Amino acid sequence: MIFASVGSMLPFERFVRGVDEWARDNPDEAVYIQIGGTEYEPRHAPFTRMMPMTEYRERLRTCDLFVAHAGMGSILQALEERKQTLMLPRHQEWGEHTTDHQIHTVERFGHLSGLRVVDSVEDMHREMTGLLANPLGMDTAISDQASPELLSGVRGFLASVRAPS
Amino acid sequence: MAGTPKKRLLAIASGGGHWIELLRLRPAFEGWDVAYVSMFENYTSAVPGARYYTVPDASRFDKLAFGKVMVKAAGIMLRERPHAIVTTGSAPMLAFLLLGRMMGTKSLWIDSIAQAEEMSSSGKVAKRLATTAIAQWPEVAAAEEIPCWGAVL
C-alpha cells in the first residue's frame, strides 16, 4: 500500500499526475492519494482532497511507502511514525509553491534515515517501485516533541508573561 | 502558586506543517489553559479536551481574505482574552499578533523550520508585531538579529 500526499494546502499537479501514472502501470499495488487543491483528478487510484487528521495518521502508519511533497508536516509525521518516505520538492518556477523553501528543506533533511529525495517524476516512478521491493533502513522514531532547548525557551517566554518582572 | 487559576494561552498555527510544528511544542504549555486556532475543523481531534477555533486561509496580499481573518480573530481574542499567544506561523496568524498588540497580549512568533535559508516574509512582519520573534535556524536568526532557541526537530 502506497499513501501519497501533497499536504493540505497547495495543489501539486506534477506530483498527482506522476503518482497516478505509476498506479496505472502497477495495477496490483494499492495506492491512495490526498490531492488537496490539485486540479487533476487521479484515474487509476482512489483519492481524497483532504482527510481528517486521525485518518491521515492511520494511513501513514499502515502504508508500506509514504510518498509526499517536501513539506515539514509530512517529514515530521513520517519521522514520528518511522515510515520510509519518498519526497518530491515543489518548485517555485513551475508555480508549485510561493518560494523554493522545499528545495532547501530537502537539502537540510533529505539525508535523514528513512527519507529519500527525488527531483523528477521519472526518478519518483523508479524509486516507488524500488522502495517497495527494497525498503529503506530506519533509525528509531523521533520524539513527538520539539527539542529540549526550544521547549525550554518557550517555557521561559511563558514564565515571563506569568510573572512580569 | 497553588489555587491560582491557570492563565490562558492561545496556541495558533496555519494548516499543514505549521500545525504539526505547533503540536510538538505542547509540553511547554503545561500549566496553562490552552485554546488552539488553525484552519481545518478536523484538527480538533489532535487536541482533545482543548478549546479549538478555525480561521480561513489568507495571504497578506489579499486584503479581503485577510479582513475576514481579522474579523474571526477579533471574535476569538475577545472571547478568550488570552494572556499569551504562541504561533508557528503563517501569514493569517499575523492578525492575532496585531490584535494582541492592541490588547496588550504578549506574543511569541516561532518562524517555521521550513525556512532554512531566510526568515519567512510573514516572519519579517511578525518581528515588528510580536513581543518576541525567534527563528529555528541559527543563520536565519543571526541575519535577522533575533534569538534562536533550537528547533521543533
From TrEMBL, chain A:
Residues 12-109 form the Glycosyl transferase family 28 C-terminal domain. InterPro entries: Glyco_trans_28_C. Pfam families: Glyco_tran_28_C. It comes from the Bacteria. GO terms for molecular function: hexosyltransferase activity. SUPFAM superfamilies: UDP-Glycosyltransferase/glycogen phosphorylase. This is Glycosyl transferase family 28 C-terminal domain-containing protein. It comes from Novosphingobium sediminis.
From TrEMBL, chain B:
It comes from the Bacteria. This is UDP-N-acetylglucosamine--LPS N-acetylglucosamine transferase. It comes from Novosphingobium sediminis.
